[in-house]
Design goal:
transmembrane, transmembrane helix, rod-shaped, DUF4333 domain-containing protein, membrane
C-alpha cells in the first residue's frame, strides 16, 4: 500500500523541471553551435581581400595580357578602368585579329546580345553603345578600319 502512495519518478515535479532545463540547455547549446558553424563557414568562404563587390579591378588588364600580350591592338588606360581595342580591317592591318577580338569579348564577359550588336554594326550606324553590369562599351565599325571599341569599367 505504501508503494501506491509514492509518486512515480516521472511524475515528480523536480524531475520534470530538471528534464525541461536539460532539454532547454541541449537545444540552446545546439543552436549556439549551429550559429558558430555558420559564422565560421561565412568567414571561410567569403572572398579574401578588401576588393569591392562587382567587376574585377584587373579584368581589363588581364584581358589584354591573355588576348593581346604584346599590346599591338589594345591599350589599358585610366589606371586599368578602360580598355581600348583596335581590330584589323581590310586596309588597317595593325591591331588585334578576329580571334584576338573574340578572346577579348569573352575575357571581359561581354553579353551575347551586345556581341551580336557589335558584329552587326554597319558603318552608317556611327558610334554605338552597350552596357552590362559594371561596364560600358562604345564601338564603331568600318570594313577598312575594322571594329574598334572601348570598354570602360563603371563600378
Amino acid at each position: 500500500m505504501l508503494d501506491d502512495l509514492q509518486t512515480a519518478p516521472e511524475d515528480d515535479p523536480e524531475a520534470k523541471t530538471r528534464r525541461t532545463r536539460r532539454a532547454a540547455l541541449v537545444i540552446g547549446g545546439g543552436a549556439v553551435l549551429m550559429l558558430v558553424a555558420l559564422g565560421v563557414a561565412a568567414v571561410t568562404l567569403a572572398p579574401s581581400g578588401s576588393a569591392p563587390a562587382g567587376p574585377s579591378t584587373d579584368l581589363l588588364a588581364q584581358s589584354q595580357r591573355v588576348c593581346d600580350a604584346d599590346g599591338q591592338g589594345t591599350k589599358v588606360q585610366d589606371n586599368g578602368a578602360t580598355l581600348v581595342v583596335d581590330n584589323t580591317g581590310t586596309k588597317d592591318t595593325s591591331g588585334v585579329s578576329l580571334t584576338g577580338l573574340e578572346c577579348i569579348l569573352e575575357e571581359t564577359k561581354v553579353p551575347e546580345d551586345i556581341k551580336q550588336r557589335m558584329f552587326s554594326t554597319r558603318t552608317r550606324d556611327g558610334k554605338v553603345e552597350g552596357t552590362w553590369p559594371g561596364f560600358r562599351a562604345t564601338w564603331t565599325y568600318d570594313p577598312a578600319q575594322g571594329l574598334d571599341f572601348t570598354i570602360t569599367r563603371t563600378a
